[in-house]
UniProtKB/TrEMBL annotation, chain A:
Pfam families: ABC_tran. Belongs to the ABC transporter superfamily. It comes from Geobacillus jurassicus. SMART domains: AAA. The keyword Coiled coil does not apply. Residues 2-235 form the ABC transporter domain. The keyword Transport applies. CDD domains: ABC_TM1139_LivF_branched. Keywords: Amino-acid transport, ATP-binding, Nucleotide-binding, Transport. This is ABC transporter ATP-binding protein. InterPro entries: AAA+_ATPase, ABC_transporter-like_ATP-bd, ABC_transporter-like_CS, BCAA_Transport_ATP-bd_LivF, P-loop_NTPase. It comes from the Bacteria. GO terms for molecular function: ATP binding.
Automatic annotation (TrEMBL), chain B:
The keyword tRNA-binding does not apply. This is Branched-chain amino acid ABC transporter permease. The chain crosses the membrane at residues 30-50, 57-77, 83-105, 112-128, 162-180, 210-235, 247-272, 284-307. It is found in: Cell membrane. CDD domains: TM_PBP1_LivM_like (cd06581). It is a multi-pass membrane protein. Keywords: Cell membrane, Membrane, Transmembrane, Transmembrane helix. The lineage of its organism: Bacteria, Bacillati, Bacillota, Bacilli, Bacillales. Its main location: membrane.
């Protein structure tokens, strides 16, 4: 449903992403593997409309979205949960979730139900609902960031490094939750460095290096691929 | 709940003081000072909405203040429009000009926005200063009527004018309060936090920034129109950069991005500078360093510093409570263990 075709992105004369083509099918979890600086975040920002591609097309269900402003792209259901757990630190957990529902702000009843749903996914957020987001721990902030993205009712959720900087036990929970979100009907595009964990829940993967895709395949194929194992899994 | 009640009590005390002020202070000069500072407060609330809550420093607001004031003057004196109709028109016309300026200015960001609006403000000043035929130029503009009576209410005496301005100030504070705690207010704060993050939540930042700017100009032009009808004489210097920086000083001292900031800052600075009047322009020697120190140590002004102090205390109390609980639990489990030991022994 989400297609990226021959996309290049430039910062001035520097080409951050060169001629990238890939797609995510409805109901899939696709993962972009790559080290820091490979261009994963730039690609995500481009899909969300924060950057305009220098060339190429991005299509959602066959319609081009690469010329739309970011807020329209969110309305179409492509929602990014940014890396680095960007929250509104002085707003409460509850207010952060409300902000996530901005595009559906008229639907008060739907918002109430969705917040309940997020609280069920992440019970700790219910306990902390009145605490300022800045006072949460790293893992809780990541949960809130994902919860807030869910409030926009994504059809495609872009998750940028949800496991970064989290304790191993929390990472495991995080991936279990991502899987659950997927099972509830959201298509997911995941950017990760933690290849093993990511491929264990994904259907399809793309390996990203220096702004371009160097390998792709189903999760099983990538896990069996020696180069990928050496570079990202280390066994 | 207790905090809410306490805040309400404070508000009631403040309101009572403000209402009783003309009875307590018989000195006409102080009454005049207070009334004037109400006008500044309204203007600063306008500035605060955009600079404080939306995060864009507009330096054109003195210009909008002046447009509001001069439009009221011109409409009542030259065109003979009834006062309150002219009053509303002055606000609306300034807001419209603000919208046009905003459409262009908001294509820039951060310091570029500040510089751009500084230029707009200066151009407004120049137009007022040079357009003799319309504004009276440097000679000024005189003969603006005091607010017209509304039914049995007359606003000819200083005390009546004080209450009229108090009413407007209270209305502005109330609207600000409702706005800041609404989704609209949170949207502005989200833009201040990070425009990019706001965009990824589906917020159209351009539309919201323009709305905030236009509202902010509206409040400032309201202050301008009130100023014209209260002072009843206008000179081009009300559009000058120094007035702009007065607004900014009030806002920074009181607390940018806080609800109490404009009131606290305006009162403090205007009364301090009155008290230091005997120093003439040398008082800037005191003001400059004090302001610098304040910005360094209390970047969020007096109200902002107070809010942060309270938040910190609350946090410390919470942590202490949690620590106590953990200690108690530890002690209890240890005790349980030793009791078991005794039984087993």
């Amino acid at each position: 449903m989400l297609e990226v075709a021959n996309v290049s992105v430039r910062y001035g004369s520097f080409t951050a992403i060169r001629d990238v083509t890939f797609s995510v099918k409805r109901g899939e979890i696709a993962v972009l593997l790559g080290a820091n600086g490979a261009g994963k975040s730039t690609l995500f920002r481009t899909i969300s409309g924060l950057h305009k591609p220098a060339q190429g097309e991005i299509r959602l269900d066959g319609e081009r979205i690469d010329s739309l402003p970011p807020d329209r792209i969110v309305q179409r259901g492509v929602v990014q949960c940014a890396e680095g757990r960007k929250l509104f630190p002085r707003m409460s957990v509850y207010e952060n979730l409300l902000m996530g529902a901005y595009v559906h702000r008229k639907d008060k009843e739907g918002i109430r139900r969705l917040i309940e749903h997020v609280y069920e996914l992440f019970p700790i957020l219910r306990d902390k609902r009145n605490a300022p987001a800045g006072s949460l721990s790293g893992g809780q902030q990541q949960m809130l960031a994902i919860g807030r993205a869910l409030m926009s009712r994504p059809t495609v959720l872009l998750l940028d490094e949800p496991s970064i900087g989290l304790a191993p036990l929390i990472v495991e929970q995080m991936f279990a939750t991502i899987k659950q979100i997927h099972e509830e009907g959201t298509t997911i595009l995941l950017a990760e460095q933690n290849a093993h964990a990511a491929l264990s829940i994904a259907h399809r993967g793309y390996v990203f290096e220096n702004g371009t895709i160097v390998a792709s395949g189903t999760a099983e194929e990538l896990l069996a691929n020696d180069d990928v194992r050496k570079a990202y899994i280390g066994t | 709940m207790a905090i809410f009640e306490k805040r309400r009590l404070w508000l009631a005390v403040l309101a009572a003081l403000a209402l009783a002020f003309p009875l307590l202070v018989t000195n006409g000069y102080y009454l005049h000072m207070m009334t004037i500072s109400f006008i500044w407060m309204i203007a600063v609330y306008g500035l605060n909405l955009f600079a404080g809550y939306t995060g864009y420093l507009s330096l054109a607001h003195a210009g909008f203040f002046a447009i509001g004031a001069y439009t009221l003057g011109i409409l009542t004196v030259k065109a003979g429009v009834p006062f309150w109709l002219a009053f509303v028109s002055a606000c609306l016309l300034t807001t419209l000009i603000g919208a046009l300026v905003g459409l262009v200015a908001l294509r820039t960001k951060e310091h570029f926005f500040a510089i751009y609006t500084l230029c707009v403000g200066y151009i407004i000043y120049l137009v007022i200063d040079k357009w003799d035929g319309l504004t009276g130029g440097v000679r000024g503009f005189i003969g603006i009527p005091a607010p017209a009576d509304i039914g049995p209410l007359s606003f000819q005496t200083p005390v009546a004018q004080y209450y009229l301005l108090l009413f407007f100030l209270a209305a502005v504070v109330f609207i600000m309060y409702r706005l800041v705690y609404s989704l609209t207010g949170r949207t502005y704060i989200a833009i201040r936090n990070s425009e990019e993050l706001a965009l990824t939540l589906g917020i159209s930042t351009m539309k919201n920034k323009l709305a905030s700017f236009v509202l902010s100009v509206f409040f400032t032009s309201l202050a301008g129109a009130l100023y014209a009808s209260f002072i009843r004489f206008l000179g081009p210097d009300i559009a000058y950069v120094s007035v702009m920086f007065d607004f900014l000083t009030y806002l920074l001292v009181g607390g940018i991005g806080t609800l109490a900031g404009p009131v606290v800052g305006t009162l403090l600075v205007t009364f301090l500078s009155q008290q230091l009047q005997f120093l003439q322009d040398y008082r800037m020697l005191i003001f400059g360093p004090v302001l610098t120190l304040l910005i360094i140590f209390y970047p969020h002004g007096i109200a902002g510093g107070f809010i942060r102090f309270k938040a910190k205390r609350e946090e410390a109390r919470r942590l202490k409570l949690e620590a106590n609980r953990t200690v108690a639990e530890l002690a209890a489990s240890r005790q349980g263990r030793s009791e078991r030991h005794v039984k087993e022994g």
